[in-house]
Amino acid sequence: MGESVLERAAPAADRRLAYGGDPYQFGELRLPAGAGPHPAVVAIHGGFWRARYGLAHLGHFCRALTDRGFATWSIEYRRVGDAGGGWPGTFHDVAAGAAHLFAIAPEHGIDPGAVVAVGHSAGGHLALWLAGRGRVPAASPIGGPPPPLRGAVAMAGVVDLRRAWELGLSDGAVVELLGGSPDEVPERYAAASPAALLPLGVRHLLIHGADDESVPPALSRRFADGSRTAGGQAALIELPGADHLALIDPETASGARVVAAITAFARARS
Asked: Under a CB-based contact definition with an 8 Å cutoff, are residues 239 and 254 in contact?
């Protein structure tokens, strides 16, 4: 294979729109052909919540979904290292960015009743957190009503923050995001980790590469089991031979399978 998805220039978005006043509070909108109303995907990029990773590399994946008939709204957000990023700003931005899609849906031919959240890696964590936001304790600064999603998808998601902290993923990235360990800030883990918010209240799909060395596939297996035990609607797809980045690269066989799986999940009526 040639250049990695991190190195290839992404297809241009149709529009770049602000959802807030900070330079990082914007999203890239891609629209399929026709008048709509189109189903839509809120896409959330990964990078262990750190500022050095932006949304550009997710553009290939978003374009592949747009070619399948979905409007895609890829949101940027303040990350660790950005002013206001980390706790709680990253969560505020993701919630505000998702809400903005519903606000602009009528003018762009988007069906607000057919929206799913999809994220990769740290973005997978944020997509499932967004879906379960209604279960965040009311006293938390990141609490609030969830958007009316029809579902959520985590690709190689960091879906259990306590377990990710135990494993020391990416040199302590969870501590950087939340500002401490589970013993130091337990209330933040309770509010921010999808594993602590089960059942999420909407159906969700976890997709993981069996050869992922950045985020262990056991996190997705354990989450899916816990979700089903709690009465949630969870499905799991594990892709043999796929690594962390293959899932968001439509030029790989695994990436093409992911796009097909998300298309089927998003178009399912239940």
From this structure: yes
Beta pairing partners, 152: 117, 204
Answer yes or no: are the C-beta atoms of 62 and 72 closer than 8 Å. yes
- Rounded to whole angstroms, how far apart are CA atoms 182 and 184? 6
Beta strands in the chain (DSSP E): 15-18, 26-30, 38-44, 71-75, 110-120, 151-155, 204-209, 234-239
The label of the residue with tokens 């989450």 reads 223
Residue of 141, 125, 2 whose CA lies nearest to 60 = 2
Q: How far apart are CA 263 and CA 250, in angstroms?
A: 13
pTM recorded for the entire structure: 0.97
How many other CB atoms sit within 10 Å of the CB of residue 256? 14
Q: Which helix (H) or strand (E) holds 51?
A: none
Summarize pLDDT for 103-117 with one digit per residue, the tens: 999 999 999 999 999
Angle at 95 between CA 92 and CA 100, to 5 degrees: 120
Specify the DSSP class assigned to residue 33: S
Which is nearest to 101 in space by CA: 88, 119, 113, 89? 113
Summarised one tens digit per residue, pLDDT across range 143-157 is 999 999 999 999 999
Q: Both tokens of residue 149?
A: 């999603």
Q: SS3 for 217? A: helix
Q: Do residues 73 and 18 make contact, with C-beta atoms less than 8 angstroms apart?
A: no
